[in-house]
Design goal:
The protein is mainly α. It has a single domain (6-44), classed as Alpha-Beta Complex (Eukaryotic RPB6 RNA polymerase subunit). The chain has helices at 6-21, 35-44. It is elongated and about 35 Å long. The two termini are 19 Å apart. The mean pLDDT is 94.
Length: 55
């Protein structure tokens, strides 16, 4: 897994939580209903398809 700064991590998790709250399908099987908790678990399992481009 790539090493992210805390700001990149917050942005990735926040963006994914927003996607989930707007109805996007989850990428893992979970029983939770809180989009932020789901996004955190997806990030921990490294399944979020979001990349960071650096200059």
């Amino acid at each position: 897994m790539e090493s992210y700064t805390r700001y990149e991590k917050a942005r990735i998790i926040g963006a994914r939580a927003l996607q989930i709250s707007m109805g996007a399908p989850t990428l893992i099987n979970v029983q939770k209903s809180d989009p932020l908790e789901i996004a955190l678990q997806e990030f921990a399992e490294n399944v979020i398809p979001i990349t960071v481009k650096r200059r």
